Amino acid sequence: MGKNFISLAIESLDPAKIEQLAIKSGLQTRKPKKISPLTLLNLYCHESINKSPSFNDIAGVINDSTGDGPSRQAVCKRVSEKFVSFLKMVLEMALSEKHLEYLPESMKKNGCFERIVVQDSTIVKLPSALFDEFSGSSNANTTVCNARIQGVYDLINKSFIKFSIDKYSKNDLAAASELEVLTNDLVLRDRGYLKSDEIKRIMYSNASYIYRHITGTVYRNPETDEIIELEKVLSKNRVIDMDVCLNDKERTPIRIVATPVSEEIANIRRMKAKKRMNGHNPSANLLFLMGWTIFIINLPRDKFSFKTILALYGLRWRIENIFKTWKSNMAFGIIHNVSAIQLRATLMARLITIVIIMRGIYRRCDWIIAQNSKRSLSLAKLMRYIQVRKERLVEILVGLVKDSKQAVLPLIKYCSYDMRKKRFNYTQQEEIILDEIFLS
Questions:
Q1: Which of 53, 82, 211, 326 is the most exposed place for a label (fewest CB within 10 A)?
Q2: Helix 81-96 and helix 37-47, axial crossing angle in degrees, nearest 10
């Protein structure tokens, strides 16, 4: 089958370890004749970049390489629940790999956070035939089937640490408690993950968090236990930074900070709110609060000003940009009319490929490019570059394994941010924010 881009990308995922996972999952019970687990893994990942792999295509590619390929029925038989379990094990192993040598020096020397963890989800539209298994929304006229993919990304290590493929009905709030929180983590999440139990769990883990305020959250005065009327407090004070308690049994202490936004941003928020409410008018209090940016945090006041908190929370957009890049350049949201097993296999293969690209290519090449040309690698441009000719994936990885700077020369030319831009690109903004925090 030629070069194995899995083992090229992540050295620990060698053929022997992959075979062990195949045996453990039950995919391999004896020495395979035509379709080895490694071959099936490579082809599924390779073909999943911009389409759903078909049994016929995979059988044909094997035949092109060996001259004695299996039938499409034989491939179909191999793509089973055991294959999905095998892919899940490979994904977990890929996610567990560490490449700390590419961290910025400031983070190695003075890390106030060991991880900055961003959790977000994206929706993938599925064939309606899978509605019973994955759910979605339906009415008298239409049925829409969706799956929800949860991703957890570490901004410091520039790599994903977890994925899950869930039913659409399993919302972000239900997935929140499944995130493993470690000491010295900073957890960045949007409103969909906000609940008091999660705030307490993060706090008891000796970790930190930044949440956006969600309408309806009740705060109490830590001294009098009276309910704080947030609208009145904001009306009297242009900027607030105060200690309050949640409205739970333990009266969990939190810090709340707020500052007004421009009228233009406030009006955009209000317009979006009215659209979401399908013609109903939002309450006056809700419209008022949309004129403010409000955060719930537990970061120390002497080290984290509102400006720093706002910059840190802005980093959360990184994972949303990654999701958008996948959908735009890897056809991540395109799923043909396949079975539930084929669907899970395709999504798992795509996630494995994404981990390889993020850890094995994007992060390493970005580091090499920065060292040699002072430029930054664009993830979107890299995805398009690979998608146009998938063989480039292997070519880049072969060059990286050989430690050749030649591997990144085309990426500098075709996939890097333009140095002529006067404003900072996203990668530069991210590094500036993190450097300021870690060197402060």
A1: 82
A2: 80
